[in-house]
Design a protein that fits this description.
single chain, 492 residues, alpha+beta, 13-stranded antiparallel β-sheet, two-stranded antiparallel sheet, 10 helices, 15 strands, 26% strand, elongated
């Protein structure tokens, strides 16, 4: 019986050792298997239906929420008083995205054009597209700044032209007209006699260029030769660098197209991307860990240096001429119009900008931009990109429409483009990238713990069995000795 127990203990020790070895091997091999699965599901490859469809059709609902800064005191502004603004909105539009003209190349890149459409969502909006909003007239106040260096008589002639076509310093239009365009006799005149002067040949609107348009010809890496390069931009409209800015660093086209990033990110990783709408590359930085529906994520936000001026942050010198920190001068890529991009309500900007207008209340929760990303795959789970369009206004002698306007960077509109993974996509993502890795990891450590426990318990059993066996042998030996001694004494 003792031999049987020892044999059983020995068998368990061997089994435990095998479990321990299997767990240790699985610990390293399992990571490799998971990494290979992630690579397989993140490269841009038409043979992989799931990942290719996610990249091509972007089946995640995206929305653009628009907020206008309604001008409350237009007459007083023309007299030099501080603008008083009232935020109106949101006016929400569903954004649909599709990639077309997709062409794969032999150097592991793929080219495409991405088309976008916007559809108004009344149930998600705080008003209708027929709401009337008053904002500065970019055709007048913007043009005045652009033309202020022309001879005085020419400026008088320009002012007369504005009056002829009944263009005043402020617009009182519906949301739909401001967004997608309105009829303007001045625009028609300029397009007829000065073609190319305006960015649009039809109606003039803040987003008239966006709807039913594409973002240019992107060529990006597929990652098939190097997963570290997947989604990174190889060229845009055939360019590998821009010509808008004053330094090579600012003209660089960095990162991805802003939809996905390479996998296996760390907290030291950044999120670089190129934005055609902002005419530059931008880079977000890690802020904190988080969880969304059980999926681990990293939150990335805009650093304070993103829109800092060249004085506060020297690498941004190439984006100048600059004004206060927090403003990006986009005039060089917007037909020289005096437009500036910022965070909404001048969040993270020079506080002096808030002194020039009334009605702004910046805070990070409402006005900071962020991207929540799954670090193992580089797939965004929740996105909120918030930007504000501002117009630089001032008095220009000879153009009477400018009145006595005090020099000001005037907020006109801010918008948020947001989207998050939900529904069947989220379920599939959660199963493949959370549950399965968790099960595999549990199995790895489970085999190791089971092996250690089995070896330890079996070793103790074997030790006790050997000790018991030795004790039995000793007792038997002592008994035999006593018997011999007794027999010897009896013979005497």
């Amino acid at each position: 019986m003792a031999v049987n127990k020892a044999t059983v203990a020995t068998v368990f020790i061997v089994a435990g050792a095998l479990s321990l070895v299997f767990g240790a091997v699985f610990l390293f091999v399992g990571r490799t298997i998971m990494a290979e699965q992630i690579i397989k599901n993140t490269v841009i490859d038409p043979k992989n239906d799931l990942s290719y469809t996610m990249w091509k059709d972007v089946p995640v609902p995206f929305f653009m929420s628009v907020y206008f800064f309604h001008v409350l005191n237009p007459k007083e502004i023309l007299k030099g008083e501080k603008p008083m603004l009232e935020e109106r909105g949101p006016y929400v539009y569903r954004k649909t995205i599709r990639k077309d003209n997709i062409t794969f190349h032999s150097n592991f890149t793929v080219s495409y054009r991405e088309y976008r459409q916007y559809h108004f969502e009344p149930t998600m909006s705080a008003g209708s597209e027929s709401d009337v909003i008053m904002i500065p007239n970019m055709l007048v106040l913007g043009a005045a700044v652009m033309l202020e260096k022309l001879p005085y008589l020419t400026r008088i002639l320009i002012s007369t032209t504005f009056k002829t076509f009944e263009e005043g310093p402020f617009l009182n239009k519906t949301v739909k007209e401001l967004m997608w365009g309105y009829d303007s006799k001045l625009v028609d005149f300029l397009n007829k006699y000065l073609p190319g002067m305006l960015p649009t040949t039809g109606k003039f609107g803040l987003f008239s260029e966006f709807n039913n348009s594409n973002t240019g010809l992107f060529t990006i890496n597929t990652g098939q030769d190097d997963i570290r390069k997947v989604h990174k931009v190889d060229s845009w409209n055939g360019l590998t660098e821009l010509s808008y800015w004053r330094t090579p660093e600012c003209n660089m086209i960095n990162g991805t197209a802003g939809q996905m990033w390479p996998p296996f990110m760390t907290r030291e990783s950044t999120l670089p991307f190129y934005s055609p709408d902002a005419c530059r590359s931008m880079e977000l930085v890690y802020q904190r860990d988080g969880v969304m529906n059980g999926i681990p994520l990293y939150r990335y936000v805009a650093p304070k240096t993103l829109f800092a001026n060249g004085t506060d942050y020297s690498p941004n010198e190439g984006f100048c001429p600059c004004r206060q920190s927090g403003l990006l001068n986009v005039s060089t890529c917007r037909h020289d119009s005096p437009c500036f991009i910022s965070h909404p309500h001048f969040f993270n900007a020079d506080p002096v900008l808030l002194d020039y207008v009334q009605g702004l209340n910046p805070n990070e929760d409402e006005h900071g931009l962020f991207i929540d990303i799954h670090p193992q795959t580089g797939v965004p789970l929740n996105v909120s990109i918030r930007l504000q369009l501002n117009l630089y206004m001032k008095t220009v002698a000879g153009i009477t429409e400018t009145g006595q306007i005090s020099e000001v960077v005037m907020p006109m509109i801010w918008f948020e483009e947001s989207g998050y993974i939900d529904g069947p996509i989220l379920k599939t993502f959660h199963t493949n990238l959370v549950i399965l890795p968790t099960v595999m990891e549990s199995m790895q450590y489970g085999f190791i713990v089971l092996g250690l426990a089995t070896v330890l318990i079996a070793s103790l059993m074997l030790h006790r069995e050997k000790a018991s066996h030795k004790e039995q042998i000793k007792e038997s030996h002592d008994h035999e000795t006593k018997d011999k001694s007794f027999m010897n004494n009896s013979e005497k």
